[in-house]
Amino acid sequence: MIDFDSILTKFVEVASEVVGSQLSQTDGFPSIIRSRNNEVKPDYPYIVIDILDVRMEDAWLVEEYVAEGSCATTVDTVYDLLMSYTVYGEDLETLTIANQLEGFFRFDRVRGDIRNSLSASIVQTSPIQQRTYEIPDRLIATTVLPFTINVVDSSTDTKYPDNGTIESIGVSGSLKESVDDPSPLTFSTTITKP
Length: 194
Description:
Number of strands: 11
Strand content: 35-45%
Low-confidence stretches: none
CATH architecture: 2-Layer Sandwich
CATH superfamily: Phage minor tail protein U
Largest sheet: 7 strands, mixed
Radius of gyration: 26 Å
Helix content: 10-25%
Shape: elongated
Oligomer: single chain
Order of helices and strands: HEEEEEEHHEEEEE
C-alpha cells in the first residue's frame, strides 16, 4: 500500500528545511499544512501541500516475487503522484519561496533522501503558476509549484500465503568447456524444501 501520510510528511520536512525560516510560524514550526485539512489557516506566508492525482505508470505490474523467509506472493507496481506546493502570501515573496523549493529538488542529497525514505523519486517539476486575488484589506498571491514523483507500491497476498510455493527443484544438464567439447561433464541435483 502507498503510505500517503509518510509521503506528505516527507515533503513537509523538505519545505521546512528549505524555506521554513521564510514562513510564518505556528506553534514554533513553519506554517506548512496539508490540503483538505480543517486546520485554521495560519498567518501569511504559508504553504499548502497536496496530492492532486494518483495514476499507474505505463505498466500494470512491475515485479512479482516471493520474499525470502516468506511464502506469500508480493507484487510491485509503480505509481505517479502529481503533487503541489501552493504558497500563499505577498506577490514576490510567494514566487521566491516556490522557486527555492523547485531549485532544491535538483540536489542529489535531496533526491537521495526522498528515494531512501519513501522508495520514491522526483520525476519532474512543472512550470510555476502564480495568481493574485484581493481580500478586504490587501492583495494576496498564490504561487503553485506542481511536481510529479513516482513511488513503488508493494502489495502482499496475505489471504493465500502458500500460493505458488515451490516444494522442490530438480536441475540437470551438461557443462562444456567450449561448443565443440567432446566430453562434457554431466550433473543432476534436486533441492527439496525442508
